[in-house]
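Late entry, evening session. Most of the bench is empty. Finally got around to the prediction I had been postponing all week. Sequence below, unchanged from the version circulated by S.P.
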Amino acid sequence: MFDPNDYLTEAQKQEIAEDMFRQQMREHLSNERQVSNHLYQINAELIHEVLDSSLGGDWREQLVASVQESLKKDLSFTIFRASDRYTGGKDGPGVAPLREAVEKHTDRIEQRVLLAIEEMDEYRIAEIMRLVLTDRLGGGK
């Protein structure tokens, strides 16, 4: 029978364990990124549906016009940045219109998100919950 202790030093076993841990973490983080990207895509589609139904099909043109108008006032990269220590304590000029739009449609967005969750099977929900908990307990954001 093969006994690795006969052939490997403690330092070599430690190195192998560290390499395997790094590999597992890379795979795990890659899977989380894929799930995260997928959830962002679902979220974007839901928001687009809400905007289509509430603002009509020309909301994209309205958004482009509004952004272009905001950009005429301010071309800095902080235009859509919320108040923080780097913006001198004030919101960029594009933040208020974005917040207003989200607040105006919060109920509809929430309904669509709940509907999307209801349409997911229990295994998908469990997997997402596992990933979120793993991220939070593992020292993620």
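Two things to note before I forget:
The chain has a mean pLDDT of 78.
Helices lie at 10-55, 59-73, 95-104, 106-119, 122-137.
Will write this up properly tomorrow.
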